[in-house]
Structure formats: structure tokens, C-alpha cells
Design a protein that fits this description.
This protein is α/β, with parallel strands linked by helices. It folds into two domains: 30 residues; 269 residues, TIM Barrel (Alpha-Beta Barrel). The chain contains twelve helices and eleven strands. Helix 8 links the parallel strand 6 and strand 7. The radius of gyration is 23 Å and the shape is globular. It starts with a helix and ends with a helix. The N terminus is likely disordered.
Length: 303
């Protein structure tokens, strides 16, 4: 009788252990769901340039960094994508040109599937150069289309706008122009550059804009929001600060980050808001940790 009792106790203990293990397993798996960094209608993301200091720069590792940062949409740097697609590891410009002219889009389509499977979309592909040949520029647009992006991004200038407009029209995609400190230069005009074509759009770097001008980026957003695909967010000091035009950890600079995000949310502007990590990473930390902090800061700013 006692032996039967002990046997029943063992069965119950084993059953309980299995049930607990299953429950823990389910709980763990539920915590590994797809990321969602959209808050109050604002899609928070990052440009993957933010992870440039990480030791592994492969596409697969970059995707892991994105997931660990809790991000669901990115501006993807072209380097890891081209490496994944098999570009020759050479500095021979002619060899690179020939590869791009004949590259299959199959690997780029794989990139889209790889990211989509893990819950991450690619809104911009940072690939291309106005100095490239026509065939290479066509390749950049085809690659962007294959990964599911809205267009390709590059540095803003009137020369770039003139060169790239026919290709944007041909591919029915955007050329997305990124500013650094140009808005602080005499005579600079977003409007003059955008006037060269309807598919010329802005990747408006609000940190660089504020650092160069001291003016609120909200004024530009109010006026040109329908020509802005995304913004790069960094927290900089203004040009008149004791330490002018300096990148700071989010929350310690002077850029009106919360005001910018709330304007986008209130007006329901479909503008991607991407962290660009450019302040010095503290000792003992890394880019993934700091990007995660930046994303959390932006989320709290929208509450």
C-alpha cells in the first residue's frame, strides 16, 4: 500500500514538473515575439549605421542587433546587404561596377523575407551614389525594391537632385536626401532642391539641423511634412551652446525631441523616426544597449 502511495506521489511530482516546464516554455516563447516599436502612430526605428561599432557587421548579426533593440522598422545600410548578396571583397571599382550591373535580385529578395520573418520592415535602403553609372543606379533602385524599401537615401545637394530625378521617375521610387549641417549655410534651401522632382524626398536629420541653425525642426516639419519620408533623431546642443553642435546622450542635449515626436503623432504624419547613434558610447556599454536606451527615451517622450 505504501509503495503504491509513493509511486502515485512520484507520478504527481513528474506531472507537475512537466506542467511547470511547459508553462515556462510558453512564457519564454511569448517573450520572444516580433518587435513593435510603433507608439501612438509614430514608427520609431533606427538607421543601422548606429551599430557600426559592433564587432560582427554581417547582415544576420545586424538583424539580431535590431531585434535586441526592440525595433520593427529600419533604414538599412547597403554594405551588409551587398555582402550578403555576394559582392566581391575588393576595392577595384571596375570589378564592383561589373558585379552590380549583373547582380541577381534573388539574394535581395531573401533579405526582405529574412527581415519580415522576424517582424522587421526596411523602409529605406542606403545604397547608391550619384557618381555611379546609370546601370549601377538602376541596380540600387532594383535592390531597394527587392528588399521592400520606399527608395534609396544619399547626401543632399542640388547636383544629386538633378542627377537622380530621372531615375526616381523611371523606377517610381523615392530618392531620399539626407542633410548634415547644410541648412546652416547661407543660401541653402530645401525647397530649391526638392523642386527638381516630385519623387525627391527628405531624410530630415533634425539633430544636424538644430545643431547648425538653432531653429526648431518642427517649423520644417510643419511646412514640408509631405516631402519627408523619415527623420534622423539625435540630441545635439545648439550653435550658441558652450559646447556647440555636440552630440549628447538622449535627454541631455538641447534638440526639442519630444516636441518633434508629438507634432508627428498629433498630425498623423507618416514619417519614420529613426535613431542615429552618434554620441560617444560609455565605457562598458555597446551600441545595442545605447540604441535600446534611445528607443526607450523616444517611447517615453510620446507618452
Amino acid at each position: 500500500m505504501y509503495q503504491t502511495y509513493l509511486k502515485m506521489q512520484r507520478v504527481l511530482r513528474n506531472s507537475l514538473a512537466i506542467a511547470v516546464a511547459l508553462a515556462c516554455g510558453l512564457s519564454a516563447s511569448s517573450g520572444q515575439g516580433k518587435p513593435d516599436s510603433k507608439v501612438k502612430g509614430v514608427q520609431i526605428g533606427t538607421i543601422t549605421y548606429s551599430y557600426r561599432s559592433m564587432p560582427d557587421q554581417s547582415l544576420e548579426a545586424t538583424l539580431d542587433y535590431i531585434i535586441k533593440s526592440g525595433i520593427s522598422s529600419v533604414e538599412l545600410m547597403g554594405g551588409p546587404v551587398e555582402n550578403y548578396a555576394g559582392i566581391p571583397q575588393t576595392k577595384d571599382e571596375e570589378a564592383l561596377k561589373q558585379w552590380r550591373k549583373s547582380a541577381s535580385m534573388d539574394k535581395f529578395k531573401e533579405v526582405r523575407k529574412l527581415f519580415s520573418k522576424r517582424g522587421v520592415s526596411i523602409h529605406i535602403l542606403k545604397l547608391g551614389n550619384p557618381k555611379w553609372s546609370d546601370e549601377e543606379i538602376d541596380y540600387a533602385f532594383n535592390a531597394a525594391k527587392a528588399v521592400g524599401a520606399k527608395g534609396i537615401s544619399m547626401e543632399i545637394s542640388e547636383e544629386t537632385a538633378i542627377r537622380m530625378t530621372p531615375f526616381a521617375d523611371k523606377h517610381k521610387m523615392y530618392v531620399i536626401l539626407h542633410n548634415h549641417g547644410q541648412p546652416g549655410q547661407p543660401g541653402f534651401s530645401f525647397d530649391k532642391i526638392l523642386a527638381h522632382g516630385p519623387r525627391l524626398m527628405l531624410n530630415f536629420d533634425v539633430g544636424h539641423y538644430f545643431g547648425a541653425t538653432g531653429d526648431s525642426p518642427v517649423n520644417v516639419l510643419n511646412r514640408l511634412h509631405d516631402r519627408i519620408v523619415s527623420i534622423h533623431i539625435k540630441d545635439k546642443t545648439g550653435p550658441k551652446a558652450a559646447d556647440p553642435n555636440k552630440n549628447k546622450p538622449f535627454g541631455s542635449g538641447e534638440t526639442p525631441v519630444a516636441e518633434i515626436l508629438k507634432a508627428i503623432s498629433k498630425n498623423k504624419w507618416p514619417i519614420y523616426c529613426d535613431v542615429e547613434l552618434e554620441y560617444e558610447i560609455p565605457s562598458g556599454s555597446d551600441a545595442v544597449t545605447e540604441v535600446t536606451k534611445c528607443v526607450d527615451y523616444l517611447k517615453k517622450a510620446l507618452q
